């Protein structure tokens, strides 16, 4: 076996670390996916990665309207009125990721990396920074100056009263990551107004379309986001577009 090496950016120290290339796959899902279906696939992929039967796998997709409530969700963050949220046409799911309540819907790209953490980062905090770096690079491509805000994971726009454009919430089980991050591309942001996104009462949301004044093509953004993620991770994985999320379309 050849000893080919890749270079991965260590964003915590701004140095580069050479390491062996790792096998993996990236899938761009065309059809929007109900949250429950995507979660079922995450669980299956996670089980396969833990057991060694699958390589690292990344899913990029859009969700049908859904509110997800993470482990840090407080009653004040969403009001506790489940039926009122459902009347807005959205599903609601309690989930085991970090963070509080957020919204997913059409026009937002959600990235689910199911990876062996120790192959890519020294711990969860560095992994979160890698995901933030991925979003920051994508935004720079569109001429948008994103930034980090201390104590508030994710990517933000602006200085005086920053608005959030990318949200992150992960979980590590048996050394393999679950959940991931979302990037607002060209979506209806009004569903965020009935919650405190990520648990912050003063949290405003924005999107790429709102920042640049035009609507990007979603599939192109998915492709570019996948490319930036593989570059940040320092890997060369095939990126495959698939029509829907089903077990038959996810080869190892």
Automatic annotation (TrEMBL):
The metabolic or biological pathway listed in the UniProt record of this protein is: Protein modification; protein lipoylation via endogenous pathway; protein N(6)-(lipoyl)lysine from octanoyl-[acyl-carrier-protein]: step 1/2
Return the EC number: 2.3.1.181
> Which Gene Ontology terms describe the biological processes this protein takes part in?
protein lipoylation
Q: Where is the active site?
A: 198
Q: Which residues bind substrate?
A: 97-104, 167-169, 180-182
Positions of the BPL/LPL catalytic domain: 52-237
Q: Using the record for this protein, list the coiled-coil segments as residue ranges, or answer none.
A: none
Question: Would I find Electron transport among this entry's keywords?
Answer: no
- Give me the Gene Ontology terms describing cellular component: cytoplasm
Which reaction is recorded as catalysed by this protein?
octanoyl-[ACP] + L-lysyl-[protein] = N(6)-octanoyl-L-lysyl-[protein] + holo-[ACP] + H(+)
Which InterPro entries does the entry link to? aa-tRNA-synth_II/BPL/LPL, BPL_LPL_catalytic, Octanoyltransferase, Octanoyltransferase_CS
Q: Which residues bear the site annotation Lowers pKa of active site Cys? A: 164
Q: Which domain of life is it from?
A: Bacteria
Instruction: State the SUPFAM superfamilies in the record.
Output: Class II aaRS and biotin synthetases
A single GO molecular function term of this UniProt record: lipoyl(octanoyl) transferase activity
Protein keywords: Acyltransferase, Cytoplasm, Transferase
| Record bears the keyword Zinc-finger | no
Q: Where in the cell is it found?
A: Cytoplasm
Q: Which family does it belong to?
A: Belongs to the LipB family.
Q: Which HAMAP family match?
A: LipB
Extract the PANTHER family matched here.
Answer: LIPOYLTRANSFERASE 2, MITOCHONDRIAL-RELATED, OCTANOYLTRANSFERASE
- What is its biological role? Catalyzes the transfer of endogenously produced octanoic acid from octanoyl-acyl-carrier-protein onto the lipoyl domains of lipoate-dependent enzymes. Lipoyl-ACP can also act as a substrate although octanoyl-ACP is likely to be the physiological substrate.
Q: What else is known?
A: In the reaction, the free carboxyl group of octanoic acid is attached via an amide linkage to the epsilon-amino group of a specific lysine residue of lipoyl domains of lipoate-dependent enzymes.
Protein's name in the database:
Octanoyltransferase
Please tell me the species this chain comes from: Nitrospira moscoviensis
**Gene that encodes it:** lipB
